[in-house]
Amino acid sequence: MNDGFVKLFSHFERFSYEDSEDLERMLMGWIRKIMVNTAIDELRRKNMIPEIGGIPDYVWEEADMGESAEQKLYYKELIILVKELPPSYQVAFNMYVIDGFSHQEIADKLRISIGASKSNLAKARAHLKKKLNNDTQEFDICSS
User: Fold this and answer.
1) Is 25 found in the same domain as 72?
2) Rg of the chain over CA atoms, in angstroms?
3) Number of other CB atoms surrounding residue 66 within 10 Å
4) Pair (67, 27) in one structural domain
5) Residues 84, 143: one domain?
């Protein structure tokens, strides 16, 4: 965190904006990007790259706001399935779907090709879809 703030303040002159109405949103996005990149750099430096893209516990809590019990259950099941993905698939899925990175950004951060990023995401989605379909079929068999 400290390294992120050092980078933030030492490069503050690079922050630019056009519209003052969106200033807060743009500044928060810029800060978030610096902090995420700094965390990824630290993980890479310590050779802990499979840990990138982990889903923090607060994500579960955010899903609980204003949704039906059935939606909450499906969301929690999905989170569990994502945590079961192989590390390379999980990283690509989390960085693309949850963190909102582009394939180019994922490739740059993980030092992989754009094709590998796209492939890992596609495989993660296929794995999740297969798992969800299997779970749905098991439910249908049990309920009939």
Assistant:
1) no
2) 18
3) 6
4) no
5) yes
* Conformational region of residue 111, where left means phi above 0, alpha means psi within -120 to 50, and beta covers everything else: left
The CA-atom distances, in angstroms, between 104 and each of 29, 30, 82, 112 are 18, 17, 22, 9
Q: Map residue 142 onto helix, strand or coil.
A: helix
* Closest listed residue to residue 120, CA positions, set 56, 55, 35, 52: 52
Q: What is the pLDDT of residues 80-128, one digit of tens each?
A: 888 888 888 888 888 898 888 999 999 888 888 999 999 999 999 999 8
* Spatial separation of the C-alpha atoms in residues 115 and 120, rounded to whole Å: 8
Rounded to an integer, what distance in angstroms lies between the CA atom of residue 136 and that of residue 46?
40
54: amino acid identity, one letter:
G
Q: For residue 49, how many other CB atoms are within 10 A of its CB?
A: 17
Total domains, the chain:
2
If asked whether residues 93 and 72 sit together in one domain, one would say: yes
- pTM to 2 decimal places: 0.51
Q: Which domain holds residue 33?
A: 1-47
